[in-house]
Design goal:
single chain, 321 residues, alpha+beta, Chitinase A, domain 3, 2 domains, seven-stranded antiparallel sheet, 6 helices, 25% helix, elongated
Length: 321
């Protein structure tokens, strides 16, 4: 009897060892790498390099698109960084591609505290390095949102939640905020893209340099010529209807359009709007105004307006006092 029991135990042990040899489980880094490699292959992505930081241990892949301002000191954790991005999960169920909305600014060392992936913070410091630079970045799930994913919705609903163990495909562009000229370059490109993407002839708008902030330009187009004779100045109060929107079409201020009028004190308006109204509007004027972020709210948020946002306004001047 003892011999039979011993024989059964021996057979069971051999069977367990055989099972372990037949099935080798991947750890999370190996799993992430296989998923990323497959994603690169399926989508025909070329030029991606594996992050060599720390002895090639991060598992991130990247492609530098623009080197940025390499004359500056490389970004470090105490530095403030401003950037725009697009994002998609490798399974394609979560896509956030609007760089007008995806606009962030904070100290580089605080990005993880803002709910952003640790991999993004590491990549901006170690790979992107400079303001004005751009890159494509594939972040493994263990440096993204891990097993829990991100969001409160269901990962089965498109753009509701990033599923657990999903690696991420980022495009990142850092804005050179070290000088006013850096902002101007970015704002000019955003406005140029707006005209191009919406098939608007830029020559239909008058480009005007700001008096208060030289080097920054606003654009305006008189849609309806006014009949009034009283000029708009810093001391004016105007009765208007207007709409304010982001350049992706999102309306952030539409309470006073149509028949709903309001009174505005010109001196209280942002520089771009104030200067455009003073230059080109009187009673009866309907005017479209596009202003760079530097002549709007700059690196501060205002309600639902993201930081460093270029804006569009349409004003109908009802009365000038």
């Amino acid at each position: 009897m003892k011999q039979k029991i011993f024989t059964l135990l021996l057979i069971s042990a051999i069977g367990l060892v055989s099972c372990r040899k037949d099935k080798v489980e991947q750890n999370i880094k190996q799993y992430d790498d296989s998923q990323i490699q497959n994603y690169i292959s399926v989508h025909g992505i070329t030029g991606m390099l594996k992050d060599p930081t720390g002895g090639d241990t991060t598992g991130m892949y990247y492609k530098l698109i623009l080197p940025g301002n390499t004359t500056l000191t490389p970004l470090d954790y105490p530095d403030k960084v401003s950037y725009v991005f697009t994002l998609s999960s490798l399974d394609g169920k979560y896509i956030s591609a609007d760089t007008i909305q995806n606009h962030e600014e904070d100290y580089l060392g605080h990005l993880v505290n803002d709910g952003l992936p640790a991999g993004l913070q590491l990549a901006i410091k170690n790979l992107l390095k400079y303001p004005g630079a751009s890159m494509r970045l594939l972040i493994p799930s263990h440096l993204a949102y891990g097993v829990n994913g991100y969001g409160s919705g269901s990962s089965t609903i498109a753009n509701s939640k990033i599923a657990g163990n999903q690696s991420l495909d980022y495009y990142v562009h850092t804005i050179d905020i070290t000088t006013p000229a850096g902002y101007q370059v970015y704002d000019t490109q955003v406005i140029s893209n707006y005209f191009k993407n919406n098939n608007i002839n830029i020559s239909d708008y008058t480009k005007t340099e700001s008096i208060a902030y030289p080097g920054n330009f606003y654009y305006y187009k008189v849609l309806t010529k006014g009949t009034g004779v009283t000029p708009i100045t810093d001391n004016s109060t105007v009765t208007v209807t207007y709409t304010g929107s982001l350049l992706n079409g999102t309306v952030f201020d539409g309470a006073y359009n149509g028949s709903n009028t309001t009174e505005l004190t010109i001196a209280d308006l942002t520089s771009g709007v104030k200067e455009a109204l003073e230059k080109a509007a009187v009673t009866g004027t309907k005017i479209s105004i596009i202003v760079p972020s530097a002549l709007a709210y700059g690196s501060t948020t205002s309600g639902s307006i993201p930081i460093n946002s270029c804006l569009r306004f349409t004003f109908q001047i009802v009365d000038v006092q």
